[in-house]
Design brief:
Elements (H helix, E strand, L loop, with lengths): L7 H9 L6 E4 L7 H8 L3 E6 L3 E6 L6 E4 L2 H10 L7 E3 H17 L2
Helix pairs in contact: 1-4, 3-4
Length: 110
């Protein structure tokens, strides 16, 4: 089983590696949401499909599909990304804004 690096810091670093207006994913598309793109950028991950509370992913060797639960911050991210209607592009800047909001929300609960 491949260990997923699903930390806010790692996801933020990936988002920050893109130009602000670069499209990093799409709303309402589990296989092309920003988190799926991030996971597929990790070594050993071939495909990823993100739903609201978990992720299905396949290793680069196309072995059986594996499933992992999403941490709370990632669930909040997917919920916010998919809050609108229709399929729309998500830029790195938008994803970073959402992550900043999640960070503020988490800090206010401490």
């Amino acid at each position: 089983m491949i260990a997923l690096n699903l930390t806010p810091a790692a996801f933020l670093a990936w988002l920050q590696s893109w130009d602000a207006e670069a499209v990093v994913g799409y709303t309402h598309r589990g296989a092309s949401c920003p988190l799926a793109g991030y996971l597929c950028s990790q070594s050993g991950i071939h495909t990823a499909f993100v739903s609201l509370d978990d992720v299905d992913y396949r290793a680069a060797d196309c072995s059986d599909v594996q499933r992992a639960g999403l941490p709370e911050w990632a669930i909040a991210f997917v919920d916010m990304v998919d809050s609108g209607y229709g399929v729309n592009p998500v830029t790195a800047a938008t994803a970073l804004d959402i992550m900043a909001l999640i960070t503020r929300m988490e800090a206010s609960h401490e």
